[in-house]
Amino acid sequence: MAEQLVVKELDNVVVRFSGDSGDGMQLAGNIFSTVSATIGNGISTFPDYPADIRAPQGSLTGVSGFQVHIGEGRVYTPGDECDVLVCMNAAALKTQYKFAKPQATIIIDTDSFGPKDLERAAFKTNDYLGEMGIDPDRVVACPLTTMVKDCLADSGMDNKSILKCRNMFALGLVCWLFNRNLDLVANFLREKFAKKPAIAENNIKVVKAGYDYGHNVHASVPATYRIESKNKVKGRYMDITGNKATAYGLIAAAEKAGLRLYLGSYPITPATDVLHELAKHKSCGVITVQCEDEISGCASAIGAAFAGALAVTSTSGPGVCLKSEAMNLAVIDELPLVIVDVQRGGPSTGLPTKSEQTDLLQALFGRNGESPMPVIAATSPTDCFDAAYAASKMALEHLTPVVLLTDAYVANGSAAWKLPHIDNLPEIRPHYATPEQKGNYSPYKRDPENGARYWAIPGQEGYTHILGGLEKDSDTGAISTDPDNHDKMCRLRAEKVARINVPDVEVLGDADDADLLIVGFGGTFGHLYSAMDEMRRAGRKVALAHFSYINPLPKNTAEVMNKYKKVVVAEQNLGQFAGYLRMMVDGFAPYQFNEVKGQPFVVAELVKAFNNILDAEA
Known about the structure:
Helices cover about 35% and strands about 20% of the residues. The chain is α/β, with parallel strands linked by helices. The termini are far apart. The protein is built from 21 helices and 22 strands.
């Protein structure tokens, strides 16, 4: 009965949608997170899908998940465990229950728990709840497939198309659990299926059916949830993924610099969405070329940089291996180029849809010869915009290729983002050749203030020059094999990168008197910050120094690293950043926390490990 319904008012809640890779869990999760962001909730999402193009239906390896953490204010991670778990089949329950809290509400489609379904999911008995130790009182068991078929019986849709709407019934039920406005869901669907209005309306009908089911049988639902929204700064917000934010940051930088944006790319998971997004924006002067391979993608971008564009190439770790020779050409030519590396699990093909931070040393040193290159790492989905903008600004103002490291976690994850105004973004001034150099221009004449050479665009009278992969004379630009000149040019290129001014690394938390400093870089920020916050609430003195600028390192790096009694470097690799810091900071000997599981850090595990370090004898 209505008066028996428990309503939990929480600061934050985690929901996980799971089912076959063809069950539309990513879409359902994306709609729910977008609706939550629209009403002012903070969100953080984690799409967790298999690498299989289409695994066998109902198989354990083919389960696709989408986790979203919603809160009244800012949310830093997708959450360790979920409060609500949606399982569209037996395999989803078998593989995803480990991500649920003991008291979580679990929604299952009983139509997908038949004998064959249980067998495919490796259940030994028909009592699947008992076998997994799940309290039946926590389970909302509904014949979801049957109800969707009944709902769309008069729609004229074929059975296959009807089954594709099952995710919308689950979404409707979750929307009821969280009192979400279905008008927002309807608007999303009508926009997504604008060219297929009948499909949009049928999906909307199913969403309402799921919502009504929750309302009508709420006596069997353990609890509903309410998340209030704190007041945000006024502005236009959207739910944005890291890859889309990266694309927008590149567009904004080109606009601010007054240049055309060129992307030469080859599709590779999980970076392809950057290409897809930029291809939509020809009206902004964006040129995208899907090349035949990674090498040509990078080489074409170098040609665009020579011709005067903001040039970008996007890829993941295996593609960086292939691009390395062309990246070296950009180093010796000293051309502005942004290399976007969306890191994934390796080596080789590895874990294509999973996330790691294992390309760091490749980005820093993975080329032949002395080939210094700035490296920037994005810390969150929304920070991908700022990092892409900063990488573009650095490339154009210092005439250098720049590596932008994101990773599958931040690239596919999403968060609520306030759209910036172009006038409020930092100015970008490409380092062009000066009028005074006309007629006596030398391509490697350098600015004494920052060591950058001057950028002359082909076709300008009085600025004729040649660039190429052979070493050049530092004064004339002619090909040179002189040993002293080569030594000089190597040092000049390294000095140019080292002289780039980057912000100091900020120390958060107990900056003045921490007993433990946590150090990280890139996409682990949210988890490390959450671990620090939890430890401080427990009375521990802990601080966090998180790096976005890897090369050059902030000028205060050594000071910060040597200030604290104990320092732990936490990263999703086997110690690459810790090793780099040891190389760059004399006497630095940190503790290390390393995982390469293809999954985000678990905050509870971080807290346990960091507490152990604090409790250990020095």
